[in-house]
Amino acid sequence: MSxxxxxxxxxxxxxxxxxxxxxxxxxxxxxxxxxxxxxxxxLVHLGNxxxxxxxxxxxxxxxxxxxxxSDLIPLCHPLALTRVAVEFVMEANSHSIECTATVETVGxxxxxxxxxxxxxxxLLTIYDMCKAVDRGMTITDVRLLEKHGGKSGSxxxx
Length: 158
Known about the structure:
- By secondary structure, the protein is an alpha+beta fold.
- It contains four helices and five strands; from the N terminus they run βαααββαββ.
- The chain has helices at about 40-45, 55-65, 70, 110-130; strands at about 25-35, 80-90, 95-105, 140-150, 155.
- It has a five-stranded antiparallel beta sheet, with helices on one face.
- It is elongated, with a radius of gyration of 17 Å.
- The two termini are about 20 Å apart.
């Protein structure tokens, strides 16, 4: 089992030193889902939500969140992202919306946290925009799907 990299020999939290790591293309893909009432799903689907284009605004929020991850997660490195894509799939049978975020950079550390943050904030934005009609929405299944690049290579979730 690997050791936790965010602690020094004395057990104190620290930012991992990535100075000697190679610059490689890094990709992180994460997803999550928000479940809602059928009526709420229809409002989002038809674009009739009181606050406007729910998914368009959630997409921008997710992109912005990926760019701000190091401001939110204390030991994350600030990264120059080369691509952030946030996509939604409306699933009528379950009255849910799946969000997938893909984040890329060329650098010395991965973008898994940026992808996970983008998904969470995009889903939270949907909640915020729809909470007036459905406070019982549930955000579930947020997880890393893939990561590529760096010394540890690729990871693809089962």
